[in-house]
């Protein structure tokens, strides 16, 4: 961690001095859904680096991207003096592009050849990725294809993933947690699903945050062959573990977006929410909507039937 309160992580030593800046969003899933913007800028400016301004809780997921520059923290609770210091630090640089997906004014306090600030735009479609990517239409044209979401585990993340979860046959990863109870498929349903999966997968791994440890322990209760890693990994180690999976199954949460960003087929279980807007941006992803948005009414056999179909494809 860096001493400057607004600097989350400094750029690698080989970072280019030709820079752009992207102001991204707050939650992990939302940040991942903005990575097509980063990917497209990098493709247009392959010799440049991209500084990123975002929330401390989610910036970790971007640290492995090879084109990233310095990562800056936007702290909503910061004092006015701290915010002015951050603006002062950013003003020391002149950027090729500034793309702010979060605020309407910040780019106009900074120095850049071209600025794009948050405002109402004609989205490419209903999904959040299409809405975010519309910010680039005035820079690169509306015909620019939207690239996939992407995160990049580093060598150390892959090594830690292999230490925690050596590869042993077909791997299925479950994420039974989430950020509020209405979005959680019941632990008892997950436990029944695990029993069904045993004949089809050699490895069943549970991933999640420390806050998910209670529900993951309930899912893994009495199952010595389930590897429960909830609360034991950082975001990029989790991404490295996911990158070796044949399938991800979970609630509407950031881990589903993380799985999609490393190219893993995803099955996301939606109760309340907007799957047309917030499903993982994944050509190999499937969504199951619970009857009446009540996840407790989504039957295990319906989920298992979809899993069998997805595993057959892989």
Folded structure, characterized:
It is a single chain. The chain is an alpha/beta fold. It is built from 13 helices and 12 strands. A 6-stranded mixed β-sheet has the order 1-4-3-2-5-6, with helices on both faces. It has a 6-stranded parallel β-sheet with strand order 9-8-7-10-11-12, sandwiched between helices. Helix 7 packs across helix 10 (235-242), helix 8 (187-197) packs across helix 13 (300-313) and helix 10 packs across helix 11. The two termini are 40 Å apart.
Poorly predicted regions: none
Strand order of the largest sheet: 1-4-3-2-5-6
Secondary-structure-based class equals alpha/beta
Q: Work out the number of β strands.
A: 12
Percent in strands: 15-25%
The biggest sheet amounts to: 6 strands, mixed
Brief summary of the model shown:
The chain has 314 residues and is an alpha/beta fold.
Please give a handful of descriptors for the protein shown.
6-stranded mixed β-sheet; 314 residues; 12 strands; 13 helices; globular; alpha/beta
Topology record:
Elements: E1 7-9, E2 19-23, H1 28-32, H2 35-44, E3 49-54, H3 56-59, E4 68-73, H4 80-91, E5 94-100, E6 111-116, H5 128-133, H6 137-140, H7 155-164, E7 171-175, H8 187-197, E8 203-206, H9 213-220, E9 226-228, H10 235-242, E10 247-251, H11 254-261, E11 266-270, H12 275-278, E12 285-289, H13 300-313
Parallel strand pairs: 2-3, 2-5, 3-4, 5-6, 7-8, 7-10, 8-9, 10-11, 11-12
Antiparallel strand pairs: 1-4
Helix pairs in contact: 7-10, 8-9, 8-13, 10-11
